[in-house]
Amino acid sequence: xxxxxxxxxxxxxxxxxxxxxxxxxxxxxxxxxxxxxxxxxxxxxxxxxxxxxxxxxxxxxxxxxxxxxxxxxxxxxxxxxxxxxxxxxxxxxxxxxxxxxxxxxxxxxxxxxxxxxxxxxxxxxxxxxxxxxxxxxxxxxxxxxxxxxxxxxxxxxxxxxxxxxxxxxxxxxxxxxxxxxxxxxxxxxxxxxxxxxxxxxxxxxxxxxxxxxxxxxxxxxxxxxxxxxxxxxxxxxxxxxxxxxxxxxxxxxxxxxxxxxxxxxxxxxxxxxxxxxxxxxxxxxxxxxxxxxxxxxxxxxxxxxxxxxxxxxxxxxxxxxxxxxxxxxxxxxxxxxxxxxxxxxxxxxxxxxxxxxxxxxxxxxxxxxxxxxxxxxxxxxxxxxxxxxxxxxxxxxxxxxxxxxxxxxxxxxxxxxxxxxxxxxxxxxxxxxxxxxxxxxxxxxxxxxxxxxxxx
Length: 456
Ligand code: GDP
Ligand code: GDP
Known about the structure:
alpha/beta, six-stranded mixed β-sheet, 17 helices, 19 strands, binds guanosine-5'-diphosphate
């Protein structure tokens, strides 16, 4: 059974772009499918193991000739009747418009659950619109970039509560093992725990496939393609310490690597695609060739994408000078990934199945930190101490003032600073605050985002 989602929103927010992003090449098949309503585009899609039917409403408003509000409402009414979940898109670059407001007010009264998506959030230009989106009263907006494929893991996460349980929990035994969320659903049934979305990435031959096999057991990985999936992708889900963990992509792992000039580029592009689907990324490196150029490129990508990173130093069984190697790793991290202190490093042997628990414990720990929220009062108390110890600089004789700070989201921890002259606040000062936050408020090893806003 698939989950039907309707993409709605005013013109130009990116509905078609998101539709194409989700549906991909299968689009061509749609027009020929009998029974698909002609004025909608609806197509199947599969996103991180979830089967979707995606309805696009773009352009439909042109079919009616009264006011834009009324036309949009009619188009939407019909689409959400069919849908299990509505995806309301806004353009974060343009900010919240009266038409978005109108839409949100109307949707709040309906029965269909709504996930609010702030589109065009790549880079920093989407930040102001993202805050405004909170005001729509539809919960926390999910920042995405339909055009660049960013935020898909967050979208998956927002969709998971609506996925029929048998799809997130492959069998009954596993459901029993997986435990439950403390808060029960309205129908009295416990909410299934959502799987942690894990990716394993790394250069060819570092031992990714071996690690995967050791983690989940040989047979599970070799069970082969499920119906409706591409041939070389399989879904792997297992439970560790009562936590369901889902590997978001196995395609890259099964593909046999070709040795040619393009290999490096391909591996990096592949890694990026997988990273965007994940919450926690395990970067596997080879103990014999510690953190080379390409390892570091992938590590930076993980952090830039705002994911939690764990470095797995594999083939530890072959290392003779262990202390020396550890020192080398530490130096590399200090010099090359200085922006995020405290990235967890686990040494292990995938082949001998050694220290696999240590790896998964590190995954669960960093996931917890990545989800952490700091209270506004703690933040502002801390901020007062920081600005007193080391005030922001003056520009043209007037001191820049930082008035207020709040955490706007977790996953990764993202903070907003209200500043008198946001554009003049130097990068070094922001780094001072980020490093301080990490240490004083206990956020080691995860990327931290700091956004600035003009204070009133
Ligand atoms: P629709 O009318 O809601 O279906 O919007 P479209 O999908 O046609 O997109 C409207 C415009 O926004 C197009 O120029 C897209 O290229 C652009 N767009 C869509 N998604 C993004 C995004 O994530 N980032 C940016 N910067 N532009 C986007
Ligand atoms: P992938 O390309 O990253 O998926 O790497 P593979 O899993 O195919 O492993 C590449 C090679 O490294 C294989 O010959 C494995 O047997 C070997 N290998 C993997 N893990 C270990 C390990 O922990 N110790 C040793 N000594 N060899 C390993």
